[in-house]
Amino acid sequence: MALADGGLPVLPLLADKRPFGLCRACVDIACGGRPSMKTSGPCACPWPCHGWAAATTDPATLASPQWAAAWRRARAIGYHPGGAGVTVVDLDNADAVGWARATLPATTTVQTTRGEHWIYSGAVRSVNRVREGVDIKSLMSYARWLGPGTGTMADVPIAVHALVEEKPATRPTPRAVPVPAPAGGGQCPHRSPVYLERGIAMAEQRITEAQSAVHATVYRTFLAVLSAHGRCGCLTEAHIGRLFTAAQAKGESPRHCTVAWANATAALGI
After folding, report:
1. Rg of the chain on CA atoms, in Å
2. Element (H, E) at 76
3. Checking phi first, is residue 153 left (phi over 0); if not, alpha (psi -120 to 50) or beta?
């Protein structure tokens, strides 16, 4: 509660450092990341079930009976660095720590079981294994809280920005999605093919412009596209690939894209 009061979005972790397992109502994000989902808060489900996205500073949520039960079982405290406006350079071994001391400016340092966390002010894209033994944890990621550390916090250095930029976001392989045989032989009945193209472009833009609730935005966008075109047979792998690419550019994993698409088709009975 003290950490949350200080602006650090927190969540309970298991002994192996993983977030608590997904609740039955949200297995594989079956809830679709409901509209109430916040940038650094839970979806409509009251459990801490979405990893970094479940991290919160809301005292009412943290003290709720559901969260209280999770905290009683927790063995560690996790937090969302990006939600707190910081970046954690996770150094997993002695060689990685040596590299940091020779390359990066001094900042707040926290000892870990195998190495150190170097914490900088400012948020960046999270990327694992930017080099051997080095992970960058910030936006859409979580880290263990191991104490306030020592040293004065510096801004994210150019070297860290460079490491993040060197690792391109994962690009998807378009996935075929079965839809019923169209009555119109695959021709879009919505006035003209231009209507479909405009709809896909608007869907890409909606995902790209999302500044928060990315899970929810992706799901609702997939749902909207399938509502309009999922039964006429005009969607192709290229169209689906464009939507998946836009979602992954915002940090969604290929698995989350596939699950969100499957949930949307199930919701519509397709």
Report:
1. 21
2. strand 76-79
3. beta
CA distance 247 to 268: 21
Amino acid at 220: R
Which residue do the tokens 């510096």 mark? 154
Helical H segments across the chain, by residue range:
2-5, 59-62, 65-73, 94-103, 158-166, 193-208, 214-229, 237-249, 254-267
43: CB partners within 8 A, 6+ apart? 26, 31, 33, 34, 36, 37, 49, 50, 53, 215, 216
Which residue's entry shows tokens 């695959």?
A: 186
* Cβ atoms < 10 Å from Cβ of 150: 9
Closest listed residue to residue 80, CA positions, set 236, 251, 237, 242? 251
Q: Which helix (H) or strand (E) holds 90?
A: strand 86-91
- Sheet containing 10-13: order of strands: 10-13, 76-79, 143-144
Tokens of 10: 């927190």
The answer to whether 46 and 67 are in contact (CB under 8 A) is yes
Q: Which two tokens stand for residue 257?
A: 């894209």
pTM value? 0.61
Q: How far apart are CA 47 and CA 241, in angstroms?
A: 32
Q: What is the pLDDT of residues 135-182, one digit of tens each?
A: 999 987 899 999 999 999 999 999 999 998 876 554 444 444 444 444
What's the rounded Cα separation, in Å, for the pair 105 and 118? 10
